[in-house]
Design a protein that fits this description.
Number of domains: 3
Strand content: 25-35%
Structural class: alpha/beta
Helix content: 25-40%
Radius of gyration: 33 Å
CATH architecture of the largest domain: 3-Layer(aba) Sandwich
Largest sheet: 6 strands, mixed
CATH superfamily of the largest domain: von Willebrand factor, type A domain
Shape: elongated
Strand order of the largest sheet: 18-17-14-19-20-21
Oligomer: single chain
CATH topology of the largest domain: Rossmann fold
Mean pLDDT: 86
Distance between the termini: 61 Å
Length: 441
């Protein structure tokens, strides 16, 4: 901690200006001149006393800033400040916290009154809108006595760094949603005996069982027909595929579409694992990278979180042909794929439709793209002139094309979700749980 020089407060200057005005008036009324001189002398004496009582104590104020281990992107994150007053009188404080430049707050100032020989804790919140490292500077406190003529500056805390990760705060919120979800579609889940790769047990043969599943070794040991019984696989691979090309850089409420997709992927992976499925992810633009193979390992969520932390757009046109080739080569088992991308026009979809169809032949593919909320606002505005009518008509055309994209994908056997960015996570989880209830996966 370093103690800086004293700072003269506004109250001192207000009092001084008032005395100067009284001196001017005393020229018209000389009887007041001596009284004004006494007032000026009293001001300097009181100011000197204020300096003494503030600087007499070696440690007048102690403060600490308590930061979270990491920030959650797009959410309000609490920052706590604890102040201890060692003075035997109440102090009035002005608190300046040098918060990271990413927040672009140059006027951060808090006022707090701390009682004599007591402590006080309070908090404020910050909402980051990008991932990465955030650096805090000093915590500066100006302390004033009840006279409030001068202040003493205290500096605390050296530089502190907090990393901003994808929105982990939403995990608990959507945990409840996933657990509360039941068979809302009126479909009772039936345990089916199938021929998938998940072995259940060896049992005695009964009339009607498939003779292709006879276990000859077990039959020889027991001296009676025994068969292998299989069941539908409980753990299905669920992949979140994020397009990190230039189309995902569009902003909404401070966050890019890419960050919304990243936050949704984190929550979706958590729900997937809680539902006993395997969660995985990958990203692509000109090439496929940031891959996490779908698993249910104990550290899978941490692996996905760290991978998502480093995902950045490269502002390039995304190569769907390379995505198709990579999926065909690396994902052999039929999986549920949530593809986060964005199509603004039918022409944009047509260029990629052949690859989407090819992917959908081997996997359950859900293409997720976004409603342009700016266009929605424009459509809902009242038109006042020809220019407004023209802009509204163009906006309605683009919104209509979004609905046509949904129909075209459905016609080609590809599932889709058209959603607003702020509803993305809810809509994706609902679609996943719907597929689980209907037995699509």
């Amino acid at each position: 901690m370093k103690i800086k020089k004293l700072y003269i407060e506004q109250n001192f200057f207000y009092a001084l200006i008032g005395i100067v005005l009284l001196f001017a008036i005393s020229y018209l009324f000389p009887a007041f001149f001596n009284s004004v001189k006494i007032m000026l002398l009293s001001l300097f004496v009181i100011t000197f006393l204020d300096i003494l009582i503030l600087f007499f104590a070696k440690q007048g104020i102690k403060a600490t800033r308590v930061l979270p281990e990491k920030f959650s992107n797009g959410d309000e994150n609490p920052i706590e400040i604890h102040i201890k007053n060692y003075y035997t009188f109440p102090v009035f404080t002005k608190i300046i916290d040098e918060i990271p430049f990413q927040f672009q707050k140059r006027d951060f100032l808090l006022h707090q009154k701390i009682k004599a020989s007591s402590s006080k804790a309070f908090k404020y919140e910050l909402r980051p809108t990008e991932r990465g490292e955030f650096w805090f500077g000093k915590l500066i406190i100006y302390a004033q006595s009840p006279l409030q003529l001068i202040s003493r500056r205290f500096d605390f805390e050296d530089k502190a760094q907090v990393a901003t990760y994808p929105s982990f705060i939403q995990l608990k919120k959507f945990d409840l949603m996933a657990m509360a979800y039941r068979n809302e579609y009126g479909i009772k889940k039936i345990r089916k005996i199938g021929h998938t790769m998940e072995f259940e047990q060896i049992k005695e043969y009964v009339l009607g069982d498939d003779i292709r599943t006879i276990n000859w070794k077990a039959t020889a040991k027991r001296n009676q027909l025994m068969i292998n019984q299989f069941q539908d696989e409980k753990s299905q691979p669920i992949y979140s595929i994020i397009d990190k090309g230039r189309v995902m850089k569009m902003p909404f409420n401070g966050l890019s579409l890419l960050d919304y997709a990243i936050n949704s992927t984190l929550v979706m992976s958590n729900v997937t694992i809680k539902k006993h499925d395997k969660a995985g992810m990958l990203c692509f633009s000109k090439k496929v990278e940031n891959r996490v193979v779908a698993e249910r390992r104990s550290n899978q969520m941490n692996l996905i979180l760290e991978t998502l932390y480093g995902v950045q757009t490269d502002f390039k046109e995304s190569d769907f042909s390379r995505l198709y080739a990579d999926l065909k080569r690396n994902i052999k088992q039929r999986s549920l794929l949530f593809l986060y991308t964005n199509f603004e026009t039918l022409d944009g979809l047509d260029r990629q439709l052949a690859y989407l169809q090819a992917i959908a032949k081997s996997h359950v593919l859900v293409v997720i793209f976004f409603i342009n909320t700016e266009l929605e606002g424009l459509i809902n505005q009242k038109s006042e002139d020809i220019k407004d009518i023209y802009q509204k008509t163009i906006a309605e055309k683009f919104m209509y094309e979004k609905r046509l994209i949904v129909k075209e994908l459905k016609r080609r056997g590809v599932y889709s979700i058209l959603t607003r960015p702020n509803n993305l996570t809810v809509d994706v989880i609902n679609k996943y749980l719907e597929f689980k209830a209907k037995g699509v996966i």
